[in-house]
TrEMBL record:
Transmembrane segments: 23-48, 54-75, 87-109
Pfam families from the UniProt entry: Metallophos
Name of the protein: Calcineurin-like phosphoesterase domain-containing protein
InterPro entries: Calcineurin-like_PHP (IPR004843), Metallo-depent_PP-like (IPR029052)
Keywords attached to this entry: Membrane, Transmembrane, Transmembrane helix
Molecular function terms from GO: hydrolase activity
Amino acid sequence: NWVQFYESQPFIKLNPVGKQNQLFITISIICSVLLFALTVIMQILVFYNSNPLIIASVFSIAGISCILSVVHIILFMKQVAARMQLFLFTIVCCLSIALLVVFGVLGPVERYTFNFQMQPMFMPYEDKMQVLFVTEKPELTKALVGFTTVCGSESVKVANCSHKSIVHQLLVDGPFIMNKQRFDVKLPRRPRKFMLISDVHGNQAYSTALPSDFDVALMPGDFSQWGHLEGFVNSFKTPLNKPVLLAYGNHDTRKPEVIESLIQRNANYYQEIGDVGVITVKVLNNGDGIDFGCKILDELVAEALEFMRQQVKQSQAKHIIIQLHCNVYAVTGYSKTKMYQSFTTKFTETLDDINDPRIRAVLYGHEHSASCFIRKNVVYGLAAPGGGPPKHDSWFQELHGPQDPDVVFGGEFHMDSYQYDYHMGQLELDDEKQLTKFRIIRIKDNKTLSSYEVPFN
């Protein structure tokens, strides 16, 4: 019965042996094999790239073509109907055409190359990732996200597929291909390790000591000395390949139009990364210094403190970190002046008034030294410079333990201070032990100078 059913099917009907039929079948098989070979050659020799979607598409089609070609050969050897072989040959042709379409659409994006002046850096932007990169000469701003070409421009809010520039901004929500490279920097759902890197001033000294297992870099300002693009680029010559949140430093704002075009966030902004909320505020006036007699600075401080109040109130985050480019507590330099002490008083009074137990740390730069103060179970961490000139106050090199408040403002909260070297900090949120952990790291030998564990409020 099975044999009768098999022989009755029109596509499987046996052919009489004939030279013309054999010739047709032979040509059909040769064409199938050649199409399969073309598929493989196109991938390996012509269109090889790093896009996993293209690779998966190509090898899926190639695999199907291979199977069909084998079936074709078996049918020929069994002298099965030419109509069936023609059907298989047509399928192989269609698959090969589909392959050509895949490369025709995605190939040009893959082949578009240029020279980076600064490799992509990744800044969380609401629920997406802001990708900033700088090229040696004006280029198009576009990347391949899946099968979709995403365009950008000099503005993170403008997509223009034909505009060329040196500074490039893209918004993406997943892995992407650009300049024949694949980038996949994700927003962590539960970030717990944060690096504090400040006051780089165009000298990327910090890169030699960066660990590989941190989640987010917090960088509160002064990426360049004079506010030029070159200084900023030099601060990121070696890519971090991690999410980064930047704050405006007073040196950066010597040319505010440059730093604003790079960061593209308000002076005060809130960013939630997973279950951690980061509040970034600006209180220093543009340029070199700070002057509480200047009306605009009073407005900046008032705006920043009110912004903190509102964001803490609205935030649904489990942990909150505040970063800024201004001394809160410190030992050296400006921290001795009444204007900085006045700001610290206003700042800490605002935190007392907010009285939110989720606030774990206040991290800052500006002073080129390293200090840790702990007040009401909140870590006040200064870890600088990351590349700028270290502080050399003559009266100490290291300072440990509580200090006389008449000598060091807030000295009763003082833990340790260091100068003369490059420094950075590491903040860790330990949910299991309910601890905020902070370390001061000396960059030249990657040595932990001091470490602290503070219970959550």
